[in-house]
Amino acid sequence: MENIENLENQNYGADQIQVLEGLEAVRKRPGMYIGSTNERGLHHIVYEIVDNSVDEALAGFCNEIKVTIEKDNSITVCDNGRGIPVDEKKGTGKSALEIVFTILHAGGKFGGGGYKVSGGLHGVGASVVNALSKELTVKVFKDGKVYSQSYNIGKPITKVEVVGECEKEKHGTEVHFVPDSDIFETTIYNYDTLRTRLRETAFLTKGLKITLTDKREGKEKEKSFHYEGGIKEFVQFMNKGKNLLYDKVFYCEGNKENIIVEVALQHSSEYQEAIYTFVNNINTPEGGTHLTGFKNSLTKVINDYAREQKYLKENDENLTGEDIREGLTAIISVKVEDPQFEGQTKQKLGTSEAQFAVQSVLTDSLKYFLDQNPNIGKVICEKATLARKAREAARKARDLTRRKTALEGGGLPGKLVDCSERDSTKCEIFIVEGDSALGPAKDGRDSRYQAVMPLRGKILNVEKANEQKMYENAEITGMITAFGTGIKDEFDISKLRYDKIIIMTDADVDGAHIATLMLTFIYRFLPELIKQGHVYLAQPPLFKVSKGKKSFYAYSDAEKDERVKELGEDADVSRFKGLGEMDTEQLAETTMDPETRVLLRVNMNDDAASELDLTFTTLMGDEVAPRRQFIEENAKYVQNLDI
Predict the structure, then answer these.
(1) What SS3 string covers 300-314?
(2) Catalytic residue at 418?
């Protein structure tokens, strides 16, 4: 009752209502506008400015964008579009340029005829970036003049004024900004993160050239992206290193219901499907109506073709969409004048007309393509038929596994050493490498909320195996049972038995390989566990440095050298070759105790989904040449490699 009395004594009236003027709301709650203030949010503000330039390209007025990471980690984005209007907007006393950069929901994307389609739908991009920048300067080139205005934390510090002259033919906009270190957790840009997003944007905007330049000392590099083939080249890029079933990439485009549709696809011998959908160049990782239209059309056209060509007999059941999409790489890109999204994050398209538009364009074009390329039609049908047989075998293997588990009783894997806590939000499971690590892990855990499950050697590489083989693998079925969520269509996050799934392997090459096999399995069959932050990598120390009564653990060579320097050259240095070498107290203190351990959370970025897919295919797939190239290109970045 004491708390209630205290609340009653507090006045709650008009004086307690806070009104945030102008861009104050953005600085007060930046996450509402850019998702977060971590590294992801830092890169997002670059995309907001780039997307404005891309909108100019979609409208047909821009064919080149230049993005530069300056020496001081500030950003410059320059395009050759029409240039933001600089004339005064009637009734405001302000230039249109100033309005765009200082007022939320102001822009040319709200039916005024400025843009037919655009990615920046809410008109908050430029003003939000301005609000979250210490300094921002925009220049507009048009009619032989250079117009400019500068801002400080979103507020104009100069008027829109002519600051010079340029060639009569030159036109476009240049935005230079310095992210505010008081807002962002880091202001250091990652070249590869920007490269991935800009490359994807270039694929989706046929003919647009995007150049990314890094001017930072010691990191100088430049890369241009220019794809006349658009998403057709995107599919070729994604299929690099795969065993293709046919050489041609199917591509179609069309306009239905004022919706521009582009689809490109190609099959490989892989077992996974890789389908990416976009609306006005915005990635929609949760799909939506355009994806539904694609799946409906693809399934119907292939089944009709299979029956016409007698690949399916009269009494055969239809091929399922899952059968037909096995090994498929596809890009679906639609341009919609006024798209409706489900939810605030624009991750799922809700525009119903998009389903009909995609179905209509794809159906006619794919039928014609199969008629003109009967060899390709045959290969697709044969692949889908094999996939159906494998799916049936996988179902039988799954049912057999369930019956076997039920007969053995308890429903949990025999090697699992479970915890006593039943509240899953408090529980965690350590997946450990081998029985040698099981002993100290079992003894060093807190049995109330920490479970331990050993793996026997290296688990199956699911990138090279079908689902039937996966269900025949004891280690994988054991993990599926222990986690409790099921996989693929049966996945249910509410049944997750452990809030943290911690992969704990030796700090050597074999340990890294086992961890990668584990991550491949989770990424391919339980990706939501990663997306929702339930997967972690334990970080066991590499060294113990001791002298007298003082001892420290070191997680890198550099940290070891620092500790030796601190304790003296005669300090005793011991190298841990594996978890099994640690005694119970050491393992508990360094790797298991929440108060003292170091964990790395495994994150998934939807903005880089295509890059992630490509990386797993390259590292874990059948083709050796792409893996060799990847290793050669990235070997110089490896740290703490224990050979």
Answers:
(1) HHHHHHHHHCCCCCC
(2) no
Residue that is written with structure tokens 């249109």 in the block: 96
pLDDT at 608: 63
Angstrom distance (rounded) from CA 493 to CA 487: 10
In 10 A of CB 269, how many CB atoms? 14
Count of C-beta atoms within a 10 Å radius of residue 265: 24
Task: Tell me which amino acid residue 32 is.
Answer: M
199-218 pLDDT tens trace: 999 999 999 999 999 999 99
Residue 638: C-alpha distances to residues 101, 505, 634, 635 (Å)? 42, 18, 7, 6
508 catalytically annotated: yes
Contact present, 579 and 506 (Cβ < 8 Å): yes
Q: Are 210 and 201 in contact (CB under 8 A)?
A: yes
0.90 exceeded by the pTM? no
191 contact partners, CB below 8 Å, separation of at least 6: 69, 212, 214, 219, 221
Active site residue 323: no
Check: CB of residue 171 under 8 Å from CB of residue 141: yes
**Residue 581 per-residue DSSP state:** G
Catalytic residue among 510, 581, 611, 622: 510
- For 569-599, write each residue's pLDDT tens digit: 889 998 887 777 788 888 898 899 999 888 9
Out of 433, 463, 467, 475, the active site residue is 433
Whole-angstrom Cα distance, residue 273 to residue 384? 12
Query: From the candidates 56, 323, 353, 508, which is the catalytic residue?
Result: 508
In which residue are the tokens 């393509």 written? 369
Which residues, in sequence order, are bridge partners of residue 250? 265
Q: What CA–CA distances, in Å, run from 625 to 269, 272, 629, 631?
A: 17, 20, 6, 10
Query: Which of 112, 65, 57, 62 is closest to 90 using CA atoms?
Result: 112
Please provide the DSSP assignment of 597-623 as one string.
--EEE----GGGHHHHHHHHHHHHSS-
Separation CA 475–CA 407 (nearest Å): 18
**How much is the pLDDT for 511?**
83
Q: What is the mean pLDDT of the chain?
A: 86
User: What is the rounded CA–CA span in Å between residue 39 and residue 193?
Assistant: 10
Backbone torsions φ then ψ of 410, nearest 5 degrees:
85, -30
Q: What is the pLDDT of residue 282?
A: 86
3-state secondary structure 424-443: HHHCEEEEEECHHHHHHHHH
Structure tokens at 232: 């057709």
- Per residue in 430-455, pLDDT tens? 999 877 788 889 999 999 999 999 98
Q: Does residue 443 have an active-site annotation? A: no
**Above 90 in pLDDT, residue 391?**
no
Chain segment 356-379, per-residue pLDDT in tens: 999 999 999 999 999 999 999 999
Six token digits for residue 290 = 């355009």
The CA distances from residue 106 to 83, 114, 260, 569, in Å, are: 16, 12, 26, 64
